[in-house]
Amino acid sequence: MSRISVRGFAVASATAVTTVGAVVGVAAGGTPAADDNNFEAAAADTTLLADIPAGQQAQVQTASLTQQADAQASAADAAAKKSAEESARLQAAKDAKSKKQAAEDRIEAEREAEAKKKEEAERASRSSVRDASSFSAQGSYSVAEVQAMARQMVPADQFQCFSNIVNHESTWNYRATNPSSGAYGLMQALPGSKMSSAGADWQTNPATQIKWGLSYMDGRYGSPCGAWSFWQANNWY
Question: In this structure, how many other beta carbons lie within 10 angstroms of the beta carbon of residue 77?
Answer without folding.
Answer: 10
